[in-house]
């Protein structure tokens, strides 16, 4: 019985192997399925050369055109004024920014002025006797001398004898000593050179200020400048007075400005030239970051395309008889997103958008409508 079962299983295996072999042989000669060829649809445009205005993009921070760093040339106690010395405080031209206690120094100035007055008064009898012709002008000088006002200029000395006499009595040296003291006395009071705002205050009322100490910073908030670096190739193109458009960082506001100065030297490291742009607007603040668009020059017979359409070999893809090809071009200006090209013949069909995996000889279908760019069989 066991032999019969084994025999039946063996026959079944042989028959199954025979059937599988026939199935494989029959399927070997079946034709392979035909994969449809996909032709990509690409966006194209026809080249028309025109005049392209070059716009140089640059950016930077605004800095007040008029700014003063406040330093003390004398020492003393910072006295309270009519306005607080705090950041954001506005001062008009001529108003006192800082006033130091000068009572002790003022007394020494008054003493020197009194000595000068006494020295001149002491020589008046000699002048009446020896130089009667000049006596009256010196008498008039004494009559106009006021200790509470600035020391007036000495009378003009004409004759040589008069000069020897006045100089020999130490009048001239005493006068210039007084003028030196008066000049230094003015340094105890710092006056606003223009109407502006205090942006930095490093001392407060009651502080003992030392000579050479920085006190703060004062700016004019009505006029600002922006410093930008431009390629040296535009050094002979950009001129003072050129109009400039400044754009805020979020592209929500624009400001009209102009080129106020162009540096006469080129940076040896970066090979750039520094351009200063002047702008006025109530919304502007020092330190604001803006982008500038400077009109440089115009390029004749050129086109402008996206930078990602230009190959590293300075070539661009064109479409000829439904095939991609490349032609050599001449880039003349690069911006952040665009490139200006020359040597592209009119009527040439070029790509408007990059094609992934593109190569010369690739079959494509040209389209000018952006909505019909899906791949089709």
Task: Please describe what this structure looks like.
- This protein has 377 residues and is α+β, with helices and mostly antiparallel strands.
- The protein has 5 domains: 1-30; 41-52 and 300-367, conserved putative lor/sdh protein from methanococcus maripaludis s2 fold (Beta Barrel), CATH 2.40.420.20; 56-64 and 221-298, Beta Barrel (Elongation Factor Tu (Ef-tu), domain 3); 67-95 and 192-219, Beta Barrel (OB fold (Dihydrolipoamide Acetyltransferase, E2P)), CATH 2.40.50.100; 104-186, no CATH class.
- The chain contains 5 helices and 21 strands.
- The strands form 5 sheets. It has a 6-stranded antiparallel β-barrel with strand order 2-11-14-13-12-15.
- Strand 13 (254-266) and strand 14 form a beta hairpin.
Q: What's the overall average pLDDT, rounded?
A: 85
Percent in strands: 35-45%
Main beta sheet: 6 strands, antiparallel, barrel
Helix content: 10-25%
CATH homologous group name of the largest domain: Efflux pump adaptor protein, beta barrel domain
Report how far the terminal alpha carbons are from each other: 66 Å
Strand order within the widest beta sheet: 2-11-14-13-12-15
The coarse silhouette is elongated
Helix/strand-derived category reads: alpha+beta
What is the CATH architecture descriptor of the largest domain? Beta Barrel
**Which CATH C-level class of the largest domain is it?**
Mainly Beta
Give the C-alpha Rg.
Answer: 44 Å
Number of domains: 5
Number of strands: 21
Number of helices: 5
């Amino acid at each position: 019985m066991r032999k019969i079962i084994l025999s039946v299983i063996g026959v079944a295996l042989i028959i199954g192997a025979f059937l599988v072999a026939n199935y494989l042989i029959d399927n070997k000669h079946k034709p392979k399925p035909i994969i449809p060829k996909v032709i990509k649809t690409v966006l194209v445009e026809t080249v028309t050369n025109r005049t392209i205005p070059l716009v140089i993009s640059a950016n930077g921070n605004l800095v007040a055109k008029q700014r003063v760093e406040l330093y003390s040339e004398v020492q003393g106690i910072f006295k309270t004024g009519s306005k607080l010395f705090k950041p954001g405080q506005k001062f008009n031209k001529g108003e006192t920014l800082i006033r130091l206690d000068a009572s002790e120094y003022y007394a020494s100035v008054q003493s020197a002025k009194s000595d000068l007055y006494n020295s001149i008064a002491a020589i008046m009898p000699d002048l009446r006797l020896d130089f009667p012709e000049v006596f009256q002008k010196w008498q008039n000088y004494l009559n106009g001398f006021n200790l509470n006002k600035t020391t007036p200029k000495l009378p003009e000395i004409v004759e040589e004898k008069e000069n020897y006499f006045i100089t020999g009595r130490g009048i001239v040296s005493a006068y210039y000593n007084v003028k030196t003291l008066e000049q230094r006395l003015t340094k105890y009071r710092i006056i606003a050179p223009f109407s502006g705002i205090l942006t930095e205050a490093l001392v407060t009322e009651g502080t003992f200020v030392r000579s050479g100490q920085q006190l703060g910073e004062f700016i004019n908030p009505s006029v600002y400048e922006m410093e930008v670096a431009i390629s040296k190739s535009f050094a002979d193109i950009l001129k003072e007075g050129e109009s400039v458009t400044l754009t805020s960082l979020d592209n929500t506001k624009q400001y009209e400005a102009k080129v106020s100065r162009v540096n006469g030297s080129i940076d040896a490291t970066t090979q750039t030239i520094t351009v200063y742009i002047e702008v006025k607007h109530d919304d502007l603040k020092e330190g604001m970051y803006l982008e500038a668009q400077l009109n440089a020059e115009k390029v004749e017979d050129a086109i402008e395309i996206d930078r990602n359409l230009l190959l590293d070999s300075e070539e661009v893809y064109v479409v000829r008889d439904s095939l991609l090809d490349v032609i050599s071009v001449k880039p003349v200006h690069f911006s952040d997103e665009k490139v200006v090209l020359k040597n592209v013949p009119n009527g040439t069909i070029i790509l408007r958008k990059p094609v992934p995996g593109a190569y010369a000889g690739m079959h494509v279908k040209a389209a000018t409508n952006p909505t019909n760019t899906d791949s089709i069989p």
